[in-house]
Amino acid sequence: MTSQSSQTIIDPPEDGHFRDAENSATTQPSPTTLSLHLTINGRDHALEVEPRVTLLDALRDRLALTGTKKGCDHGQCGACTVHVDGERVLACLTLAAQVEGRSITTIEGLADEDGTLHAVQAAFLEQDAFQCGYCTPGQIMSAVACIREGHAGSDEEIREYMAGNLCRCGAYPHIVAAVRQAARELRS
Ligand code: FES
Ligand code: FES
Question: Domain spanning 32-106 has what CATH number?
């Protein structure tokens, strides 16, 4: 005759380690969020984010500014290029918390309030400098900074200083032509 045990079966926790309730209460990290105020395209935005949230995810997922694209999410393609205090940065490698109090510009903020396109945006249209368009916001933001930095004096220089922005469609000759045209127009 077999004896039935009255043992209670307890499923192990997901990480496989049992802890007593008291210890568990003292070792569990409490959720932490930061209250941030970001100035984006001249407007202030208040948001609560975890410290690990990137500027790219804050823009796209929290503020619905989806013009800034996520390509590699590892700093290798340039699709996420935005300006911080006028300088180009990769939003996927920048924490939202790092840019509080700075002036952030995205592709949505490049045209004038009345809708007049920035010279670089207009040049990209005139030169047909895109195919699928996925890399285009990052290319344009990078090109604006490249011209402002004084690094658009020749096609070679444009190619060198735009090298961080990849285009899987291979629209490079048209992109260089657009940057050349915009640089000429902005100089005159
Ligand atoms: S998404 Fe940031 S560099 Fe590719
Ligand atoms: S236009 Fe398609 S990736 Fe550049």
Answer: 3.10.20.30
Q: What's phi and psi for 49, nearest 5 deg? A: -135, 155
Instruction: State if residue 83 touches ligand 1 by the CB under 6 angstroms criterion.
Output: no
Tell me the one-letter amino acid at 96.
Answer: A
Q: Which residue has the least CA distance to atom 4 on ligand 2?
A: 167
- Compute φ and ψ for 69, nearest 5 degrees: -95, 150
CA distance linking residue 89 with residue 128, whole number of Å: 25
Q: Is 162 helix (H, G, I), strand (E, B) or coil?
A: coil
Q: Considering the domain 110-188 in this protein, what is its CATH number?
A: 1.10.150.120
Q: Which of 130, 140, 165, 179 to mutate to test the pocket of ligand 2 (most atoms within 8 A of CB)?
A: 130
Which tens digits make up the pLDDT trace of 2-39? 444 444 444 444 544 444 444 444 445 446 999 999 99
Predicted confidence at residue 170, as pLDDT, reads 97
Pairing outcome for strands 87-90 and 103-105: unpaired
Nearest to 50 by CA among 35, 64, 60, 69: 35
Q: Where in the chain is the domain with CATH 1.10.150.120?
A: 110-188
Where along the chain do the CATH 3.10.20.30 domains lie?
A: 32-106
String of DSSP letters for 81-108: EEEETTEEEEGGGSBGGGGTTSEEE-GG
